[in-house]
Amino acid sequence: MTLVRMVVLENALVLEMTREEFEELVAEALDRIPPELTRLMDNVAVFVEDEPPADDPELLGLYEGTPLTDRGEWYAGVLPDRITIYRGPTLRMCDSREDVVAETEVTVVHEIAHHFGIDDARLHALGYG
Description:
- The protein contains five helices and five strands; from the N terminus they run ββααβββααα.
- It is α+β, with helices and mostly antiparallel strands.
């Protein structure tokens, strides 16, 4: 059984969830990606961090790398692309565990879509933005 608590932070209630519980939600979101898509993912790693860079404190996720659509013959011997999902802002914006589950899934799909070369405008049109 997962225990979800609310704590008061700067006069606002904030959902509390352990890093391990949040990492499990990210893993479950990844497991829900259709296998035909995960088979196409190449040279990408997914990480969970507590907080995003200070210059973007509400960032939920970040894709860093070269999208599959931009890779050419030159693409070899490079470090894996990096997808990072941020726990802090997700918990601050959600009111329940169910909200965290839903938001985490949307964020994971959003960042994986960037790996496939789908831009933010298209993701917003599809409801992932």
